[in-house]
Amino acid sequence: MSDIFESQNLLSNETLAHYDAGQEDQRLLQGVGRLEFARTKELLSRYLPPPPAVIFDIGGGSGVYAFWLAQQGYEVHLIDAVPLHIEQARATSKAQQVQLASITVGDARQLNQASNSVDAVLLLGPLYHLIERSDRITALREAYRVLKSGGLIFAVGVSRFASTLDGLFNGYLDDPEFVEIVQRDLIDGQHRNPNNHPAYFTTAFLHHPEELKAEVKEVGFESETILAIEGAGSKSCGPAINFDHSTLIPNGFKRFSKTPLDLVISEAEK
């Protein structure tokens, strides 16, 4: 079965078009994406078991986190629903010495992996692109199935207030079209970008923190903590900020890490 065939119906046409623009491959390496990358790496380093633990990076894009983890000695399996991302990951794999254990097009709701066989699952993207709650629960159940007892899931959601913050800080609220987007986001979390404006993201679901926690707990996980990844910090990041500075993350953003916005870390108790 070809990757193209397998990818059909995994994402909406709008979402596939958004990612087929090819910008995701560099997003975390430039601009405010550097904060997300630095902060997420800090959190993964804090909670992951030591190498050579088995990690499933589900919805991991072109593998920015997957290759970083593989360099540390983890056995990393990358799965993404966008064929372009998988092509980019395979190209990266050929160009460098550190290899991933597998790179495949796939669906977070149906994993081709044995039960009780994985030490950690990263769901850093699927939960906000699965706009129906039933699909998010299915993806979480699959993660729970493949995890060993005591294994960890890192489940990321986008805050219900993300578009509001974007509008306030970037001036988008001057656009009536964006105001309509924000109004719906605040009502039911269903984010839509009907005219595919490049700055207004794509089809997604925006969580309240307690909604994300409840979904994770519904399938059997014991919620460890809810942490912010970016928060308002993403609105104050200029090009002069050095995200490789060794004290920035521990001493700066960690002060705000208990703000419940983005990330639920949970343990599979079986």
Brief rundown of the structure:
This protein has 270 residues and is α/β, with parallel strands linked by helices. Helix content is 39%, strand content 19%. The protein has helices spanning 3-6, 13-20, 24-27, 33-47, 64-71, 83-95, 126-129, 133-146, 162-170, 176-188, 209-218, 248-251; strands at 54-58, 75-80, 102-105, 118-123, 147-156, 158-159, 190-191, 204-207, 221-227, 263-268.
List the helices and strands and how they pair.
Blueprint: H1 3-6, H2 13-20, H3 24-27, H4 33-47, E1 54-58, H5 64-71, E2 75-80, H6 83-95, E3 102-105, E4 118-123, H7 126-129, H8 133-146, E5 147-156, E6 158-159, H9 162-170, H10 176-188, E7 190-191, E8 204-207, H11 209-218, E9 221-227, H12 248-251, E10 263-268
Parallel strand pairs: 1-2, 1-4, 2-3, 4-5, 6-8
Antiparallel strand pairs: 5-10, 7-8, 9-10
